[in-house]
From TrEMBL:
Name listed for the protein in its UniProt record: PA0069 family radical SAM protein
SUPFAM superfamilies registered for this protein in UniProt: Radical SAM enzymes
Keywords noted in UniProt: Iron, Iron-sulfur, Metal-binding
Gene3D superfamilies tied to this protein: 3.80.30.30
SMART domains tied to this protein: Elp3
Organism: Gillisia hiemivivida
Length: 358
């Protein structure tokens, strides 16, 4: 009799899906699962592996018109946070890995990130424009606590007086409060904190290795109290899971000092559709079909929509209801607040790392 594979605690994805670029694929057969169960062996190795890489460039131009950033920088590829919905999972396939468990377990570390950033900022052709840390994967994921690549990058931005934005869902950002405060003096930094739910059980299932809800709200409050401009991304909105939390969440972040809130509707593009569908049948079997149907309703009957300007916000009745709730929430709780524009005027005088005197 086939043995059901146990839910892998501490991970988002519950399997490795085939890489679309590979000629061959593999599957876990029931006889193998039975053998592992009898022998008491693990089906897969759940440990995180760090892989050193040395890219030629580190600052990426973002060509998507609806992402809200011009340039991004990601010191890590793959993310141990394991958020089940993460759009970045698909990018792991370009490195020859799976968008499933591999994305959470095989973390590529860009060891020469700081050197490449310095070279970029000193280029005579480079004109200051905000660069966003974590456009793809979180720059404050667990391994950053030891490696401190993000901290060194922030020191580099400060040295060259260059504007930087940060997107994260990890309270580790507070470790670098000393640098953030120095950047903020010249309006050179913004932090966009991701808070998807106020429910800790929901957070644990959706984002297994991230900071707790309580810790993220504390992080928001500490950033705001230290005059670091901070907004919140409630992303993604997943119908049937967190779509009912919009107003209470916006009230909570407003009470803790957020200057704004943004959102996206979940879209399960590429390999994520299969990964998410497998996960929800195991993690939330009582509502799996309902959630998947409602996600499809937001994207014209599909789990994904790739049309620019529509893909992030969705379409149809559910998407419109979400949009209206955010309009009400912003007016009720965040009226009169806005994120200040980042300062791009100082960098030219600091291209060599110190202010020009003449």
């Amino acid at each position: 009799m086939p043995v059901e594979r146990e839910y892998i605690k501490g991970r988002g994805a519950q399997l490795n899906v085939s890489n679309k670029f590979d000629t061959h694929s593999n599957e876990l057969r029931s006889d193998f699962l039975n053998y592992c169960a009898i022998e008491g062996d693990e089906v897969t190795n759940s440990k995180t592996v760090l892989i050193d890489t040395f890219p030629k460039t580190i600052v990426n131009k973002v060509v998507s018109p609806d992402v809200g950033m011009g340039y991004s920088l990601n010191p890590y590829q793959g993310c141990e946070h394991g958020c089940i919905y993460c759009y970045a999972r698909n990018s792991h396939e370009y490195w020859g890995f799976s968008a499933g468990l591999d994305f959470e377990q095989k973390i590529l570390v860009k060891r020469n990130s700081v050197e490449l950033l310095e070279k970029k900022l000193q280029s005579s052709r480079w004109k200051a424009v905000p660069i966003i840390l974590s456009g793809n994967t979180d720059c404050y994921q667990p391994t950053e606590k030891k490696l401190e690549i993000t901290r060194q990058l922030l020191k580099t931005f400060l040295k060259f007086k260059h504007p930087v934005g940060i997107i994260t869902k990890n309270s580790l950002v507070l470790r670098d409060l000393d640098i953030l405060k120095e950047l903020a003096k010249d309006n050179l930094v913004q932090v966009h904190l991701s808070i998807t739910s106020l429910n800790e059980e929901t957070r644990r299932l959706l984002e297994p290795r991230t900071a707790t809800v309580k810790k993220r709200l504390e992080t928001l409050s500490q950033l705001a109290s230290n005059n670091i401009p901070v907004s919140v991304m409630m992303a993604p909105i997943i119908p049937g899971i967190n779509s009912h939390e919009i107003l209470p969440l916006v009230k909570s972040i407003a009470d803790n000092g957020a200057l704004g809130v943004g959102y996206t509707m979940v879209r399960l593009n590429g390999a994520i559709g299969g990964i998410f569908s497998d996960w929800i049948q195991k993690a939330m079997p009582d509502r799996a079909d309902k959630v998947l149907h409602q996600i499809a309703e937001c994207h014209g009957g599909n789990l994904n929509d790739s049309v620019f300007e529509r893909r992030m916000k969705g379409s149809g009745n559910i998407a419109e209801q979400v949009s209206q709730q955010f309009k009400i929430a912003r007016k009720k709780y965040l009226s009169g607040r806005e994120m200040p524009k980042l300062n791009c005027e100082l960098h030219e005088e600091y291209k060599d790392g110190q202010m020009k005197l003449f």
